[in-house]
Amino acid sequence: MIEFARQSNVDDGETEPDTINDEPTDWQQMFPVTWENRANTLRHNLQAIESVFDLNKSYFNGNAIPHDDRQPRLSWRVATLPYAEANDLYMRFATSETWQSTTNKPLLDEAPLHVSTIDAIPAGLSNILTPYGPQAAFGEAGDRVMLAPDLLDGLADTVCLIEVAAEHAVPWTRPVDFKFNANEEAPNWPAFGLPDEPFVLVGTLDGKVHRVRKDIGHEAWLRLLNRADGEEIDWEELEY
Which domain holds residue 101? Predict the structure, then answer.
């Protein structure tokens, strides 16, 4: 059985809050969310992504649900709901409309547990991001990413999910994640992992979750995030 990380109940407004209350509640102190629980949450998302791959003959629109004009409407988190034991919620979305439409926006408040790994985050946000871009596991908005030959590095060496700090969480239905460009000299990346932890939880397309050391350096992260650089990953060297 999948054990989900628990979310706290935080009042939502029309705009995102300026601050995040990270003070632990009595419940959190009694039942702390361990890294193992958080890893299970990532695995649940990986299983849903794999199901979409299988159903759609080896491709997955990783960034969003596009419409006829190929512009993104909703996130991959919405696209995978039927395969994450949340089909009833998926059926309430108007997939031809944007995440901010009158039909879809109220559903922002009904984020399922598996879209976040931590308690200290406002409801409606997700701290599980996919890298997307020309060299990433998932292409630009509307693009399809083939398993072969496009994923030259193989499933086991292609990172597709990253746990990020709460301040970099995004609205779970919005088609926005972490844009990766291997050619950027000074990339504006989000803070990978949680504060005060020496590792980052990442998921690869073979369904595995790894604890990667934060101190591996920029070049090592480039190898992890680039889906077709031909570099073999030595996970034992990078694992915490």
Answer: 33-232
